[in-house]
Each structure stands twice: as C-alpha cells, then as structure tokens.
Amino acid sequence: MSAQAQGAPGDWQRDVFRELGGAASAGAAQEAAAPAALPPAPPAPGEPARHGRPLPPPTPVSVPVVGPALDGSGPRHGDPLPRRAGRALRRGLTSSAARQTETATRIARAIQQPITTGRQIAVTSIRGGAGKSTVAALLALTLAHHRHDPVLAVEADPALGTLPRRLGATEIRWSCGDLAGIVDPSMQITDVTGYLLPFAGGGWLLPGSQGTIGARLDVETYRIVMTSLRRWFGTTVVDCETLPAEVARTALTTTQARVLVAPATTAGAATTRSVLDWMGGLHRSMLPTTVVVLVHTAPDMGLDGRRAAEYLGAGGARVIPLPYDRSLAAGGEIRTALLAGATREAAALIAAETMDRAMTRGSSRGGPR
Ligand SMILES: Nc1ncnc2c1ncn2[C@@H]1O[C@H](COP(=O)(O)OP(=O)(O)OP(=O)(O)O)[C@@H](O)[C@H]1O
Ligand SMILES: [Mg+2]
Question: What is the pTM of this model?
C-alpha cells in the first residue's frame, strides 16, 4: 500500500528536543530526522565510540539467533490455496470492493497520522505464550510498512524471547543493557541505528539479550532505553514480559497506549478482565488507551467473539481478534507475504486502533506514573 504524505517528519523530533530542555539544537533535530539508511558498521571492540566517548568494555560478540527448522516442511501460506483463489475471484466480482478500499484507506490514515512526540506502545499479557511477541512483531511490521518516521521494536522480555526471530534477526550483538550504557543525547540517529538490527519495512529492533537463560532487564535499564530512544523514533513497540513482572507493569503505565494480549479462550478472557479492572483502577485514561487482542493459536478456540468483545470492552478498551494463521503457527520469521488476508487485516486494525489511542494521550504527563 502506498504511504500517504505526512507533515514534516522532523516536527515530532524537534518537539522532543524542546521538551528535553533544548538538549540539542534545532539543526541537530533536523539531522536526527534524516532517513535512517543503512546502519553504520558497529564500532569494533576497543574502538572509541563516535563523539570521543570510550565504549564500556567488553564489546559484545555477535551471537546467532538459533532456530532450526525441525518440522521438515517449508514455510506455509496463512490461507489455503482455494481460499486465496476464491478471494481473488470475488475481488473482481462484488460491489463490496469499494467499501473494502474505503475501510483500508481509513485504517492506513490512522496508522500514518502525523505525530508531534514519539509514541510508545507496550504489548503484554497475563499469561505466557498468549501471543505477545507475535502481536508485537505484527504491530511493528505494520507500522514500519506504513509510516515514514523511524519505527523501533524493543524486546523488554530478555528471557529467551522470540521477538528477534519473529522479525528475522539472524544474530544479536547489542541488547538493551548495552545500549543503556552507551546512549547519549548528542548521538545522531545514524549512530543509534549502528547498535540496532534492521527489519522489514525499514524498522529497527533492539533485542532484550543475546538469548541466554537467566538474562535480566531491570526497570532502570528499561527507563534509560525508553526515555533516550524516544527522541529518535516516532513510534516504539515494546514486547514485554508476562504480567505482573515489574518491567511489564512499568511499561504498561508509562507508555501512551498498550496492547493486552489474551488467548481466545474463556479462561483467557476471564483473567484478562481481572487485569483490565486493575488497570482501570490505576487511572481513568488506562482502559480507553488499551487494545485487547484475542489470539487464536488454534483453528477453533471455542470463544464467542461478540460476547467476549462486550465483556472485555467494558470500560473503554477496544477488542480485536487475531485469527489462527498457519504461517504464524510455525513460529520463526514472520513473512508478511505469506500472512492470511484476515491476519493482515487484523494487524492493520490493531495498528490503527493503537495509534488512535496513543494519540489521545499525547504525552505520558497526564497519565499514571
Ligand atoms: N495468530 C496465530 N495463529 C497461529 N499461531 C499463533 C498465532 N499467534 C501466535 N501463535 C503461536 O502461539 C505461540 C505463542 O506465541 P508467542 O511466542 O508470540 O507468545 P508470547 O506471549 O510472546 O510467549 P512468551 O510468554 O513465551 O513470551 C507461538 O508458537 C506462535 O507461533
Ligand atoms: Mg514472547
């Protein structure tokens, strides 16, 4: 889909710099707004960082993201062949085509809306394996595809998280903890992206760790990374640990919008309702800035979608189902070309609704701390 022209991409970055007390000149903000081209080669071990600051030793060595294909079959398309053929046929025959285009345009506009300060979106859940990393990756890929300003995906779940693999990373060198010790307001975006991994659509990924068992991410590191990187990235998606971990709770209450992922089961809906009630008690802005994604990790999860939407939507959250998709079930890198049509539509809707919500709480100042 072609991206819409937006307001000057430097605007939000200038505002962030102003908000930060003029830490950098408007000229520097303009430089920061320069499109993030190829990442510069990360500094070699022991080499002084740009701007004359020495790197904290030791410099991490790249570690491969392991992911052997054990099922023996190649990547599968989300939709079976007859459905793809049927859809192609219907596209040319039905009068709903115009309506579909209208909806797609409205959704694209919401995703692409201009922003004045960086927006950060936390993705979490009350259950492990609910689909957080998958939803975070779909959201980051959708935003990166549609938006002109830099999109960042942060993995704030260092314990063997799958976000890097979902976004196609093959090896990891720098992670949140490393960047927290390096990041400096005088850096330009091209300096910062040297420590990040590129993903499809022009987005950037900051892994939580090199995938070691027992790796930890403390709240202080999380805060440094998120407050520092906000000046360079228009939108940031954070893949959090399962609640009630402390970093996940911090992310939930300090971002402008949040996505609560739940398995599309009766039990999943019930526990998620408890989390929503707790969130609603923190601040009145919490539920209206929340999107609940009901993930179907199996073809028939047996949940009444309409009733679940009413039950979970009470208080202002928007509830969106993410359908079962064969290409997602296999794990591994998300190849957008293989996603089922319904999955792409759901991902676009999640991105549009989340951006709308992130805009209503323009800065985290008004919300809970
Ligand atoms: N829409 C979908 N269709 C089919 N399978 C899915 C879908 N979404 C997620 N899955 C599968 O569900 C499993 C859990 O997903 P994911 O790793 O994203 O969850 P998570 O909440 O990040 O887990 P963790 O708590 O371990 O971090 C994975 O095997 C993934 O492939
Ligand atoms: Mg995960």
Answer: 0.82
**Residue of 76, 134, 320 with the most ligand 1 atoms within 8 Å of its CB, for mutation:** 134
Residue 345 CA to ligand 1 center (angstroms) comes to: 18
- Which residues, by Cβ under 5 Å, contact ligand 2, an ion? 132-133
Our answer on whether the CB atom of 217 is closer than 6 Å to any ligand 1 atom is no
List of residues 6+ apart from 289 with CB closer than 8 A: 256, 257, 258, 357, 358, 360, 361, 367
Continuous H helices in the chain: 11-19, 26-32, 81-93, 96-112, 132-146, 163-166, 176-182, 189-193, 219-229, 246-254, 266-282, 305-313, 326-329, 341-360
- The per-residue pLDDT for range 58-87, each reduced to its tens digit, is 788 888 886 655 655 677 888 888 888 877
Cα–ligand 1 centroid distance for 110 (angstroms): 26
Q: Which atom number of ligand 1 is nearest to the Cα of residue 298? A: 4
State pLDDT tens for residues 224-271.
Answer: 999 999 999 999 999 999 999 999 999 999 999 999 999 999 999 999
Task: Classify 2 in phi/psi space as left (phi over 0), alpha (psi -120 to 50) or beta.
Answer: beta
